[in-house]
Amino acid sequence: MLFFGPAIVLDDNIAEGNVDQINDLILEIENRSIPCVKLLTLPDADEVVEHLDGVSFLILDWELRPKELEDTSGIQMPDSWTAQNVEFLKSIMAKVFLPIFIFTASDIDNIKQKLQSEGLYDPAGNNRIFVENKNSLVGGHLFARIEEWTAETSSVYVLKEWEREYKKAKNGLFIDFYGLSHAWPKVLWKTYKADGNGNMGLGDMITRNLYTRMSPFQFDEATINRSPGPEPVMEQLRNVLEGERFIPKARLSADDKAPGDLFYTPNGTTYLLNIRAACDVVRESNPDLYLLKGKVLDVTTDSGLFLKGEFRERHTNAIIACVDNGKVIEFDFRKFELKKWDAIKAGRIGRLLPPHITRIQQKYALFQQREGVSPIPREAFYTDAPAMTGPDLSTTSIATAAPEITGESFFKEAIRKWSEIRFFLLDLIKKQ
User: Fold this and answer.
1) How far is CA 131 from CA 39, 59, 108, in A?
2) To which CATH superfamily is domain 7-151 assigned?
3) pLDDT score of 392 more than 60
């Protein structure tokens, strides 16, 4: 059973003693011990959307009459009724992800065509809307058809599996802490506020605790791979990978700042990535941000940079793929800037998420503390050794430079650069 939580049914034929098939379907839902909210008319989408969190699914009658009409017997359904359904669905689907079932006595192909013309239905792919004739559902077939549809709609299947574990973890967390002390939020708030930020501390504690309590997921691979439609093309793959690692500005709170915040410089040529620790960033309203400079890499041709699922890096750089509309960005550890949040917050385009930002922070820390060692001459082992020369780093990209770089000149340059950065950081520490 994937569906937990109440169901909402929107149908004007809901009535005690009414012979309409929707009442048989409601009875089947309630026999599964699923609470059922029954509405005879469309509610205001903007008002009801705040109350849909936790709802298992929503059932909509396509022939639902407007509020002002009491009796529609003998009236052919006008386009205005269809329009109100479409607008309601658009408003709901833009703000809440939940399965929507349209159970109707009308021609389902016509309904699908209308939904498709409005951008709400894809006949060749996954859909959040399931359209079915009421006749095929009565007689105990409702949940068999719903589960069959869910198995073909991987996004809904994954949502329901995740919700099941999340709800168990959430209830367990708050029950346990309430048992420890009714005043547990006050205790932890004082602790975290004394450390600099009560909001972040309390929120992070709950999130970490929830994550730890959630049991290992057991997604069914066959169900996930059963989704209809063609395999994702290159652009779709990049879009999905970007969603996994990057949150665009529109989804972030304007004053929420954190490591991973990515900025685009006003001149439109350079990216800046904040790597300063979260605990330092949130303690001030206008903190200093530690920013690494980055630039877009051209990866249209395979130059050997991509190997075994990642772009090859050196100890002086980090490369992150699929951010800011699919771009691949190289961050140079030797190009470091210090800027105030207020001075650049208008240029923020999004946030790089863990573990990707964590990996860059860790690698940068290693870069600052690395110990240089002399290269081993190839002549010590091979007779065909070429002359020891290094690339001109002033004109060669970090990413495209040869992975094996030797030579006395390069070694001296690396020592010089490290000395400059070390003294710069020591000076920063003294000013803190």
Assistant:
1) 19, 10, 6
2) Response regulator (3.40.50.2300)
3) no
